[in-house]
Design brief:
Order of helices and strands: HHHH
Subcellular location: Mitochondrion
Distance between the termini: 30 Å
Main location: mitochondrion
Family: Belongs to the cytochrome c oxidase subunit 6B.
Protein name: Cytochrome c oxidase subunit
CATH architecture: Orthogonal Bundle
Number of helices: 4
Number of domains: 1
CATH class: Mainly Alpha
Function: Component of the cytochrome c oxidase, the last enzyme in the mitochondrial electron transport chain which drives oxidative phosphorylation.
Length: 84
């Protein structure tokens, strides 16, 4: 199955062995970081950031909207605590 087909058929976040517990807070945060890191890296190399969509969809399905809005605001303000 190609990357595009996987994204098209995506419904919710799949199991991630790095986060085996029920509490998915760290999974949410890690996928948010991974999306922005991926996007930053590929954009800097003038490459298409489409492969980063996977992380975007995962964090959108796991993270509460209020958290994402807060993190996006912090990114814009330059006060986001994570390393991107």
């Amino acid at each position: 199955m190609s990357h595009e087909e996987k994204l098209k058929n995506y419904r919710t976040a799949p199991f991630d062995a790095r986060f085996p517990n029920t509490n998915q807070t760290r999974n949410c945060y890690q996928n948010y970081l991974d999306y922005h890191r991926c996007n930053k890296a590929l954009t800097a190399k003038d490459k298409d950031p489409a492969p980063c969509e996977w992380y975007h969809r995962v964090y959108k399905s796991l993270c509460p909207i209020a958290w994402v809005q807060k993190w996006d605001d912090q990114l814009e303000a330059g006060t986001f605590p994570g390393k991107i």
